[in-house]
Amino acid sequence: MVLIMVSDARLSTYPGCFVYFGQMSSKCFFLDRDGTLNVDYDFVHKPQEWTWCDGAMDALVLLKQKGFKLAVITNQSGIARGRFSMDQVNRLHGWVNDQLQNDLIEIDGFYVAPWHPDYHDGKDPALLDERKPGTVLFERAATELGISFDGSCMAGDKISDLLPAMHLGIKPYLIRSRFYTEEIGNWCRQHHILIFDRLLDAVEYELSAD
Ligand SMILES: [Mg+2]
Question: Is 34 one of the catalytic residues?
């Protein structure tokens, strides 16, 4: 069988050919937010609370130049706890993309899990699977953004960021933040996961190995 990737419907009449009309899937660099893109001060939800991690914006520019889509996957239990609203988080993420406009890039999607098991009475338990280490938001991003997990990466500062990536066949990288412990380091070494001080260092490594 011959597989032709086209967007031209006229080719569909070629005998013996299977023609695929969809878009080719893109590789994606999935990103944790707090502790990976911005300094984690706990419950960051306003622009004035956002401090970019050193080199993070440069990392995003490099990834875009190399054809990666960018999807942020973030647990924001502060919403379930009533500390802030999804609207505030969405406005913050809009502001983040405004910041990136100077570099002519943007993050393609922000996927937010607003839930927490201690604040979930009366709600559908399945919604908790949106929280990392669940894979639901990764799969939603893949569908909405046309992403192939093959060739994609994930960077985060907690094991719960890396587990869903490993489950889906996404290459994981650990970024050191204030949550880093020797135990986490040992776990990463056991699973052959590389550890970097900054997202930018992980991205430069990934692109050099490409
Ligand atoms: Mg984090």
Answer: yes
Q: What is the CA radius of gyration of the chain?
A: 19
The DSSP code sequence of 97-147 is: HHHHGGGT---SEEEEE---GGG-TTS-GGGGGGSTTSSHHHHHHHHHHTB
For 90, residues 6+ apart whose C-beta sits below 8 A from its C-beta are 110, 112
Residue 40 appears among annotated catalytic residues: no
Domain 25-209 -> CATH class: alpha beta
DSSP label of 63:
H
- Residue 125: φ, ψ to 5°: -60, -30
Q: Give me the half-sphere count of Cα atoms (radius 13 Å) on the Cβ side of residue 49.
A: 14
pLDDT tens digits for range 63-111: 999 999 999 999 999 999 999 999 999 999 999 999 999 999 999 999 9
* Cα–ligand 1 centroid distance for 32 (angstroms): 5
At residue 180, the 3 state secondary structure works out as: coil
Angle at 144 between CA 172 and CA 73, to 5 degrees: 40
CA of 126 to the centre of ligand 1 (A): 22
* Domain locations along the chain: 25-209
Whether 77 contacts 128, CB under 8 Å = no
